[in-house]
Fold this sequence. Notes:
By secondary structure, the protein is an alpha/beta fold. About 40% of the residues lie in helices and about 15% in strands. The chain has helices at about 45-55, 75-90, 105-115, 140-150, 155-160, 165-180, 190-205, 235-240, 260, 265-275; strands at about 10-15, 15-25, 30-35, 60, 95-100, 120-125, 220-225, 245-250. The protein has an eight-stranded mixed beta sheet, sandwiched between helices. The model has no long low-confidence stretch (mean pLDDT about 95).
Amino acid sequence: MKWKDVPTRSISVGGVPFAYRELGPDSGVPVIFLHHLMAVLDDWDPHVIDGIAKQRRVIAFDNRGVGASGGSVPDTVEEMGRDAIAFIRALGLKKVDLLGFSLGGGVAQMVALQAPDLVRRMILAGTGPRGGGGIEKITRVAVMAYLKAALTLSDARNFLFFPRTPDGKRAARAYFARLKERTTNRDTPISLQARRAQLKAIRAAGLSAPDDLSVITQPVFVANGDRDLMVDSSHSADMARRLPNAKLTIYPNSGHGGVFQYHEAFVTEVLDFLAD
Length: 276
């Protein structure tokens, strides 16, 4: 089975339905995917999930208030982390690996800080630490991208995720083609409440005091593009330096979606890292 064909399931988490999909072998430590700002299950790159699911059990879910999940999106990353922990425990899982992209990377850090016993290894892509300078400006960056998208009748991620170079534009076209592979039983679009709460949470995280990342002793793989408009790669590098057991990869000539532009290399690195 491929990601485009995986059925959507639901599990009650404290009386709230959480939508999720899973793919891959039943054995081993599962990899929990935490997705980006304004994303739902259909926004994961199928080639990334299919590639990792060849060797690992992958579980992607809509956190509280996102997509087909019930409730309202909280406006802090700490609460998003608590909801993710509750979902993982509702599945009966005792140990997981985390793959967080963008906002999902911030939530993954909250999971590791709040429930360190739950986390074996962690991949943080296109993300930075709480209290990172400039992260609070993401609303302005997003608004500009959405204005450009409206003027060009295109998806804002063309401008947010990929550089406007020939290679970047080709990567964007290929990425959006992959996102359309699933044609039936697609997820519920993100709500206005969810968008506003997520932006508020990101701004608050950017203005927050930095976390003590030295207490996250699990192995961490940090990845980003070298031209990230949303989370500058310097923030990823700073985060990797502050994590005691981290490795860093910066993909060249790529932006916030560098892990999707270089999806083949990223999948290989992730599988090597998780198998280490």
